[in-house]
Write a structure and sequence with these properties.
Radius of gyration: 17 Å
Strand content: 25-35%
Number of strands: 7
Strand order of the largest sheet: 1-2-3-4-5-6-7
């Protein structure tokens, strides 16, 4: 089984002041319009990455986890990019089953998510001719997003087209594979579990950004914004 761990501590992305902002916001990934953008929870043109941390195993990087502010929504995004994607997803499924046992409320939602994850993995498999090609890039990419706003929530599985910006992976566009409507409580809890596992060195940021609307932590976030996030 592939064990996933962090290679380095997650880094917070500072907020630029309006006077200092360049023509292209380095903290946002401007996405080309695609079918996914019809849903406000999937409109990546408004993304501001607050925290990000790599996913590694045995010295190899298989992607990264990100905490994103997307307009009024909060997103925990898992970007996978690996030659052993199926093994990486097997590790994710193992943790998911451990977190959502059959006795726990939310198990049914978790089972639906895992079934969709399996379908998404199958949809990203290359054609047989591409698999046999000696020059083919055997890495496959998958984007998993848990998103919630004051009025909406959802889980999305997408196949991204990746580039590079400022020395980091950048999502150029993404094909929506499947969007899931799952209970809000399940989505919030999974966001917390994923973020705490991969971004645990910034607990104050997580508390502000993942707090339910109306909570004390959420009110402090609304009052103070995210400008006090430091690298």
């Amino acid at each position: 089984m592939l064990a996933l761990a962090l290679a380095t501590a997650p880094r917070a992305v500072p907020t630029a002041r309006a006077a200092d902002a360049p023509a292209r916001d380095a903290n946002a990934e401007r996405a080309a319009p695609d079918a996914a953008d019809a849903n406000e929870l999937l409109d990546r043109s408004r993304d501001r990455i607050l925290l990000r941390a790599p996913i590694t195993s045995r010295g190899r990087t298989h992607g990264e986890v990100r905490l994103i502010e997307r307009g009024a929504a909060r997103v925990v995004q898992t970007l996978l990019y690996s030659k052993v994607l199926r093994r990486v997803l097997a590790a994710i499924r193992e943790r998911e089953r451990a977190n959502w046992s059959t006795e726990r409320e939310g198990h049914e939602a978790s089972a639906r998510y895992l079934a969709a994850l399996e379908r998404a993995e199958q949809s990203t498999r290359p054609a047989p001719d591409a698999q046999r090609s000696a020059t083919a890039d055997r890495r496959r990419a998958l984007l998993i997003e848990f998103a919630v706003s004051d009025t909406r929530e959802g889980v999305a599985l997408l196949e991204p087209e990746l580039g590079e910006a400022d020395g980091a992976l950048s999502i150029q566009r993404a094909r929506l594979i499947e969007a899931l409507e799952l209970p809000r409580q399940f989505i919030r809890e999974n966001m917390r579990l994923i973020a705490e596992e991969h971004l645990a060195t910034q607990p104050d940021v997580l508390a502000r950004m993942l707090a339910p609307p109306g909570s004390t932590a959420g009110e402090r976030a609304n009052e103070g914004g995210t400008g006090d996030i430091t690298p």
